[in-house]
Amino acid sequence: MSGTLRLLHMLGGGRQVMINIHRLIYVSASRGEMTQNQLDGLPQVARSNNSSTGIAGLLLFHDGSFFQVLEGPQDDVLRIFGKNERDYTHSRVIVLQTKTAPERAFPTWSTGYMAPTNSIRPRRKASSIYAI
Description:
By secondary structure, the chain is an alpha+beta fold. 21% of the residues lie in helices and 39% in strands.
């Protein structure tokens, strides 16, 4: 495996193949102000987009800006990124990094959400951290 973490990917008929982990990191701006309800709905969208593909990562949102890390099989990472890039909520998308990763940065995360604590909310409006 030459030091690269690979993902076991199930094929039809129960066959498994080894897949390199691909990582894509990007930033974007929100096209408009997002409500807390919209932000709270993002984990469900991520779950439905990423189910059964082995995609994991991180999504941060603060003051109208997104920062996202996607990890998994390259075709799936690029498909999810393309979908996000075309989504009406994103504008000014900038890819910071795309590469085969030596290991997952988020090995135990699938899709989750952590709301900012009350002590953070007064200083930061609409901030959210997501593990996907």
